[in-house]
Structure of gibberellin 2beta-dioxygenase:
Amino acid sequence: MPAFAESAAEPPLADSYHALLRRAGADGRNKDAHCTPTVHADHVLPAPDMAVSECELPMIDVGCLTTGGGSAEERAACAAAIAGAAEDWGFFQVVNHGVKQELLEAMRREQTRLFRLPFEAKATAGLLNHSYRWGTPTATSPAQLSWSEAFHVPLAAVSGDPPCNYGQLTTLRDVTQEVATAMSKLANTLARVLAERLGHAGERFPEGCDERTCFLRLNRYPPCPLSPDAFGLVPHTDSDFLTVLCQDQVGGLQLMKGSRWLAVKPIPNALIVNIGDLFQAWSNNRYRSVEHKVVTNATTERYSVAYFLCPSYDSPIGACEEPSPYRTFTFGEYRRRVQEDVKKTGKKVGLPGFLL
């Protein structure tokens, strides 16, 4: 790997923010000099919601599922709690999940080393198979900018096909593989439980998902002193079946419940699970893919690791029963449509674009 000793580690997020702010002001100026300049509402950051309250997501002990122990009654009660949370919240927390705490702590140490590399190394050296990203390349206003950086790694690369480039971070390889394996096992267990609650017991679910089709995302949210209203991650839903998230204790994750944003209280040793768009479609809207975001912190960086349970790009996303409100589509088609919508409008349309 080339030497980047003179380079700062931080991505140029401040430069992007100021450029977008200038652009929003320029776009809003009326050509008539006698008129007051205007800025479109979707070009500026929303006013801070002072009414945001902290919530504790439903907490579910899944030890009876991950260890194979427990009685039939305990497993049934656990499955009912998982399905209930998926229907009511779209989010829940799990403990006794089978992902060892020391493994997650090792992942955090490796993540910190990774993100402290010079920006040029992260952006140009091909680390983790060119999966580095920062900010929002398609943003046209500050309201569309995510103040964050990440490595969004296809698990086919983690498993070594083609071999993944870890640069000089040789210990990152084994930790990443272990985390992906452990989170994959948990995600598939929860997905099967949720499918069984809809009457699909004994089937392999999700169909088309394996260790090569999913993704692991290593996130870092740098401190943002410029605006208390900036997004670490803009409001969105996840374009997968299921997401498993390990966040640190800094906080910042918020989700939409009803018409209000709620801040998710970090709980030590708990993992967060949320339903993605594909599961909402497959379940005929029984399970909810809920909008969520990350808010920035002015002084403290935040780390998280997310596992995305995804099928192959050519896998059709059907429904658990007919009739379905959605037309059949493939995962690849869905991703392309999301990318096209974001590029054209700055916003993800998602499932409403696939309604019959």
About this structure: The first helix runs from residue 13 to 28. The first strand starts at residue 53 and ends at 55. Residues 4 and 118 are 6 Å apart (CA to CA). The chain has two domains: 14-44, 52-349.
